[in-house]
Amino acid sequence: MALAGCTAGAPPSQKEPVAMEPSIEEELQPVHPDEDVSYTFNTRFSLSNALERVEMLRSISMPAGEQSMAYSNSLGAIKGTLMKQEYQIRKLEYELAKVLHRDGEITQEQLAEKEAAYNQAVEAFKGFWGSFGISD
Questions:
Q1: Tens place of pLDDT for every residue, the chain, 136 residues?
Q2: Is residue 94 a contact partner of residue 114, using CB atoms and an 8 Å limit?
Q3: How far is CA 68 from the centre of its chain?
Q4: Under DSSP, is residue 35 helix (H, G, I), strand (E, B) or coil?
Q5: Which candidate, 41, 19, 21, places its Cα nearest to that of 29?
Q6: How far apart are CA 102 and CA 111, in angstroms?
Q7: CB-side neighbour CA atoms (13 Å) of 109
Q8: In the chain, what are the domain boundaries?
């Protein structure tokens, strides 16, 4: 007697774990004897540090005339690029988190954290966009 709905065949496929790539940080050498790789990679090259440097440059030196417009536009483009990249990263992290949550690999709380970070990046970029202007 055959069982209805049963078929002989391969069991449902199991998802293979995805091997994550190690951080390039592990392969780097210090750029200065007084600064370890972790500080340079994670702090010196952070979004917040880059935005602080843009504001510092904006406040300490403003050339005259047309150079002033080009300088201001350049700083705005750099800040815009950083803000856009932060938005894109948070968007991708949130989209990945939705898939991981659907597959039961992360909790609702972890998904909510990614969503909050994404929403914060959206608002930060919109705020930048609303304040940005091109000098001509």
A1: 555 555 555 555 677 777 777 888 888 899 999 999 999 999 998 999 999 999 888 888 777 777 777 888 888 889 999 999 999 999 999 999 999 999 999 999 999 999 999 999 999 999 999 998 887 7
A2: yes
A3: 30
A4: strand
A5: 41
A6: 10
A7: 0
A8: 34-131
